[in-house]
Amino acid sequence: MAEVINMPRLSDTMEEGVVAKWLKKVGDKVSEGDILAEIETDKATMEFESFYEGTLLHIGIQEGETAPVDTLLAILGEEGEDISELIKNEKNDSNKKEEKSDKKETDSKSDASGENKKEKESTPKTQVPKGVEVITMPRLSDTMTEGTVASWLKKEGDKVSEGDILAEIETDKATMEFESFYSGTLLKIGIPEGDSAPVDSILAIIGPKGTDVSGLIEGLKSDNAKETKEAEHQKEDKKEDTKSEKKENKPTETSQNKSQTSGTDRRIFASPLAKKIAEERGIILSQVQGSGENGRIVKKDIENFQPGSGAQAYMPVGQEQFEEVKNSQMRKTIAKRLGESKFTAPHYYLTIDFYMDNAISARTAINEAGESKISFNDMIVKACAIALRKHPRVNTQWTNEATIIAKHIHIGVAVAVEDGLVVPVLKFADQMSFAQIGANVKELATKARDKKLKPEEMEGSTFTVSNLGMFGIREFTSIINQPNSAILSVGTIVQKPVVKEGQIVVGNVMTVTLACDHRTVDGATGAAYLQTLKKYMENPITMFV
């Protein structure tokens, strides 16, 4: 399915951008993370990467052309896909936006000479003091609608120079550093650490030291709220007009409304979203105290409503309670990507045991002889990488047009972090020694837990390893990390009876499970890969041959 990419807003003040250079042309294959173009903003020329995969089907803004934010930049999709209707719709939407913009401009001119001028003069907008700059939540990716302030690197009162890193912002893709385009003193922080806010929300205020901005944020928020409420009311009025006749013909809804207003003569004001949530949860609106304008019930009132808080409240011995934890941008992305993988790629699983006695002896000898220490996971990563040389069909990715076989070997290593799971990538892992793999895994894992991983350090894997052995897990299955075709789940080493030379002895056994995408890796191919992997792990010396 085609993906529309619009001109991104790469700085908080950017209203339009210039395509300085296209690095891909129509017909080129594009992978997630590829640089599509260099875009000149009002601050600098920046590389813009793709968050999608496919073929570049259409370029909407040519090199050297200027276009507003959200203008059609490009379309990615399947080779040969018909996008004529999509382009037409985008152009129509663009024309409608221009017409609305022209209408607003005309209306504002007429307002300036008519009665509306008096109304506007009576409610002036908050004025920003001279020299003060208001910084809003930037849109750091083309799909970002809100961001979370992971950490502030400056505090109120600190001096800020142009180019200083103000904060780390968690998007739907990664945690990224956000630098200041202004110099001055950080006068006010608008979004505390850990809080999420929509794009364009007030992030911070910078200006001359000592400037009083105590009421500026509240004033600006009030301005935005008034505009938002006015737009909401207009939409609701239109909806009420179109639905009024239908409601009169629905006795069920009428009786429900009566039950919601029983025992009171007051009219209940509630937003459509609040009504919907109340209906889903079985909440009677007349029992809810609204916090909006004129007592209007809004979403948060329904979500915060505690049943049984009225005069006839009855509290049983036990009480059902839930704690709502906001989904981080990372958690949302994990859910989206793993859901897509599980329900699009036909998974199957192959499980095998490795006898680890020789691997244990080899690891002990290496750690005693060398300065650096290696883990069993380092040995597994190395074995997986060199086994892929002999089984390139496992080192693949699926597209509707072809199976792409990677000639290079990049191993993703799953790392658990507080908010979920990230997969830093060891580039050209087959060329690394045990010690190099161990050092790189430790460095990347530390960055992951500190939320310091760069996007490029999590991109480009061709195969993934997930190890839960350190938690005592003997056996498990994993969801494939697309666009990979396979992922290896590694369990702990356990002692169990094994037969050696006709005798039952105690052996050290590790169970691993390979999840494969049946579109690219057949059962026999996956089984052959595991046989090679078993040979390397049970005889580690073969990895040096």
Tell me what the structure shows.
Strand 25 (486-500) and strand 26 (503-517) form a beta hairpin. 32% of the residues lie in helices and 26% in strands. The strands form 7 sheets. It has a 6-stranded mixed β-sheet. A 4-stranded antiparallel β-sheet has the order 1-8-6-3, with no helix packed on it. Helix 1 (84-113) crosses helix 2, helix 9 crosses helix 10 and helix 9 packs across helix 11 (523-538). With 545 residues, the chain is of the alpha+beta class. The longest helix is centred in the middle third of the chain and has 33 residues, at 216-248. The chain is globular, with a radius of gyration of 30 Å.
